């Protein structure tokens, strides 16, 4: 499974990102009074800050109370969520939590953060002439990075067991050269907004997930 | 198959121990500076991994690979950080680090009454045992160039 594709320009800015199949993580649970989670009431979101349990982790956002959507700190019908959670007579309450998706800002921030890590990895190398990070693995995902000769970085975040991502990266590079670089309206280093590129990338990723490396 | 070098950091980022075996290139900065750079970049990688992960992660960062070497990371519950660099083909490095912690670090550093936690390890016994352990591990072979 492919989670996402990022393209970082030569100067380290994110020029393209695409979420492919990011799983939606939602947990619904009925709570009794008093609520054993510590929530933080921000202007935009209600976030869990302490007391993770049963799949509800710190950082998750409150999405719904008794099936009614939460918008900011208000319910859809205009009631304050905080007041509902504080009153004992409202319990038992059914709360739905969701792991927040990355915002575009966060993605830009992370993509530019990868740039120095890539460079430091080659500086700290015990062997001469090492490249930067090519594969970065964590327990939940594996990030593959391919740097072209011109310094553009292609990154694919995939499941750790996914094979053939190196080939996929080269294919994405091909699409980039065909549909971005050959597009007369695209100027280098600028965010990539080409419809044809989007379409073909989507097609490629779908095909890759269905058939593996053999058929792309 | 080979092992290049090993860093052991404590939770405050102090370099407790540094060992190297088949290191061909030095980074060109002092050991102190290098340790800070390594610790700093690992810290960033950890936060990077936690943010970019599509699902909630437990262990977080495990290793990264370049075309010449791979760097494996193991963190204990007490936030001791073991970092080892090997060639790209080595397997079972995570288990090696776990054993290194249990059999060498705990035995010869933690149980050494003369060592205060948080200070660099200078014990000669620790150094000898670690050297022996690394050299006897299946990953540590002669480097074929």
From TrEMBL, chain A:
SUPFAM superfamilies according to UniProt: SNARE-like
GO biological process, one term: endoplasmic reticulum to Golgi vesicle-mediated transport
Residues forming coiled coils: none
SMART domains (alphabetical): Sybindin
Keyword Transport: yes
Compartment(s) where it occurs, according to its Swiss-Prot or TrEMBL record: Endoplasmic reticulum; Golgi apparatus, cis-Golgi network; Golgi apparatus
UniProt keywords, alphabetically: Endoplasmic reticulum, ER-Golgi transport, Golgi apparatus, Transport
Family, similarity comment: Belongs to the TRAPP small subunits family. TRAPPC4 subfamily.
Name the record gives this protein: Trafficking protein particle complex subunit
Organism: Chironomus riparius
TrEMBL record, chain B:
Gene Ontology biological process: endoplasmic reticulum to Golgi vesicle-mediated transport
UniProt feature coiled coil, ranges: none
Oligomeric form and interacting partners: Part of the multisubunit transport protein particle (TRAPP) complex. The heterodimer TRAPPC6B-TRAPPC3 interacts with TRAPPC1 likely providing a core for TRAPP complex formation.
GO cellular component entries: endoplasmic reticulum; Golgi apparatus; TRAPP complex
Compartments in which it is found: Endoplasmic reticulum; Golgi apparatus, cis-Golgi network
Protein name: Trafficking protein particle complex subunit
Keyword set includes Transport: yes
Organism name: Chironomus riparius
Pfam families reported for this sequence: Sybindin (PF04099)
Family: Belongs to the TRAPP small subunits family. BET5 subfamily.
Record flagged with keyword NAD: no
CDD domains assigned to the protein according to its UniProt record, in alphabetical order: TRAPPC1_MUM2
Gene3D superfamilies: 3.30.450.70
Alphabetical UniProt keywords: Endoplasmic reticulum, ER-Golgi transport, Golgi apparatus, Transport
């Amino acid at each position: 499974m492919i989670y996402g594709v990022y393209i970082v320009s030569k100067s380290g800015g994110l020029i393209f990102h695409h979420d492919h199949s990011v799983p939606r993580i939602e947990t619904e649970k009925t709570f009794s009074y008093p609520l054993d989670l510590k929530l933080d009431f921000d202007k935009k979101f209600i976030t869990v800050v302490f007391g993770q349990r049963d799949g509800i982790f710190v950082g998750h956002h409150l999405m719904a109370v008794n099936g009614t959507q939460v918008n900011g700190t208000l319910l859809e019908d205009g009631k304050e969520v905080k007041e509902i959670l504080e009153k004992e007579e409202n319990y038992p309450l059914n709360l739905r939590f969701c792991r927040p998706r990355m915002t575009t800002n966060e993605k830009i921030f992370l993509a530019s953060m990868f740039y120095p890590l890539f460079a430091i990895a080659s500086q700290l190398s015990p062997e001469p002439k090492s490249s930067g990070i090519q594969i970065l693995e964590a327990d939940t995902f594996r990030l593959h990075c391919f740097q072209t000769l011109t310094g553009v970085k292609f990154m694919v975040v995939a499941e750790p067991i996914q094979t053939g991502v190196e080939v996929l990266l080269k294919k994405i590079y091909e699409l980039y050269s065909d549909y971005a670089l050959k597009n007369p309206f695209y100027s280098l280093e600028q965010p990539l907004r080409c419809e044809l590129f989007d379409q073909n990338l989507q097609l490629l990723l779908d095909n890759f997930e269905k058939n593996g490396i053999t058929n792309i | 198959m080979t092992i290049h070098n090993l860093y052991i950091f404590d939770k405050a980022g102090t370099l407790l121990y540094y060992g190297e075996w088949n290191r061909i290139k030095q980074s060109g900065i002092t050991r102190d500076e290098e340790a800070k750079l390594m610790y700093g970049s690992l810290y960033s990688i950890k936060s990077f991994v936690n943010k970019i992960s599509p699902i909630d992660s437990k262990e977080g960062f495990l290793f990264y690979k370049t075309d010449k070497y791979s760097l494996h990371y193991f963190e204990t519950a007490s936030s001791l950080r073991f970092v080892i660099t090997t060639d790209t083909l080595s397997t079972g490095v995570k288990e090696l680090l776990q054993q290194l912690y249990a059999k060498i670090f705990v035995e010869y550093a933690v149980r050494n009454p003369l060592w205060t936690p948080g200070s660099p390890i200078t014990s000669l016994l620790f150094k000898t045992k670690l050297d022996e352990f690394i050299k006897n591990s299946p990953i540590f072979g002669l480097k074929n160039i």
